[in-house]
Design brief:
This protein is an alpha/beta fold. It is built from eleven helices and seven strands. Strands 1-3-2-4-5-6-7 form a seven-stranded mixed β-sheet, sandwiched between helices. Helix 1 links the parallel strand 2 and strand 3. Helix 4 packs antiparallel against helix 5 and helix 4 runs antiparallel to helix 7.
Length: 249
């Protein structure tokens, strides 16, 4: 398994933040976040999930299996509690983890996700065929201002081969589509929770996100204006400020 720590060693006296990427992606998506949180006095664990980026093994086929993998990671490096910041699929994993392992989580930040994330069957079919149109379709729905990225869209740079699409992205999309425990899981979350949404998100519209956050005990909601689904890219600095205020309370 590959874990980036924001360039700092793990200090057991500090609180630990776990950054969870979305479908088909890697720890690279957190490049504007890792060192910031490390500089604020936190341990940072920015992971490549199995089969993604620099982590070996096949991609895990269910949200529950990813949660179990996180628990194994914590045991491996002897971390007792974590603060999860999860984007999209990563947030879905955060919901599952917090409901099943409440003793292991301190706080949770859910970024651009809901308790259920059904995936269009056409997108799944394209991904299972290794068709790059799957990535283009994701980008079309995932960004409010995709032309604004200097050097091109980050997603296309990460998911850039038929193998990545077929063996990583397709597996992740199916895991999201098949997760059915979200509605009961959010009602079991007791830790402080921050839900962040983009007001222009097409994948998780604000009204869908609010339906989730209203059912989570001890939760707060923030909506970032002029932002789509990829908040971690589009409004990284605004998001970091919200997260810092939340986790420091």
């Amino acid at each position: 398994m590959f874990v980036s720590t924001g360039g700092t060693d793990i200090d057991k006296k500090k609180a630990t933040i776990l950054l969870l990427h979305g479908s088909g992606l890697t720890h690279i998506v957190w490049s504007l976040h890792e060192q910031f949180y490390a500089s604020q006095g936190f341990n940072v664990l920015s992971v490549d999930l199995p089969g993604h980026g620099n982590s070996e093994g096949p991609s895990l086929k269910s949200i529950e299996k990813i949660s179990d993998w996180i628990k194994s990671l914590m045991l491996k490096i002897n971390i007792e509690k974590i603060i999860i910041i999860g984007h999209s699929q990563g947030g879905l994993v955060g919901i599952d983890f917090a409901s099943r392992y409440p003793e292991l989580i301190e706080k949770i930040v859910l970024v651009a996700n809901s308790y259920k994330m059904p995936v269009n069957q056409d997108l799944i079919d394209l991904a299972e065929a290794g068709d790059e149109k799957a990535v283009l379709l994701m980008m079309k729905w995932g960004y409010e201002g995709s032309k604004a990225f200097i050097g091109g869209n980050p997603v296309k740079k990460i998911v850039n081969s038929a193998r990545d699409i077929r063996e990583v992205l397709a597996v992740d999309l199916n895991a999201c589509n098949n997760y059915k425990n979200g509605e009961s899981a959010i009602k079991q979350i007791n830790c402080p929770t921050l839900c962040i949404f983009g007001d222009l998100d097409k994948m998780v519209p604000v009204k869908v996100g609010l339906k989730m956050s209203e059912q989570i005990t001890n939760s707060k909601t923030k909506i970032i204006p002029d932002c789509g689904h990829m908040i971690i890219f589009e409004k990284a600095f605004e998001m970091r400020k919200l997260v810092k205020e939340f986790i420091n309370k």
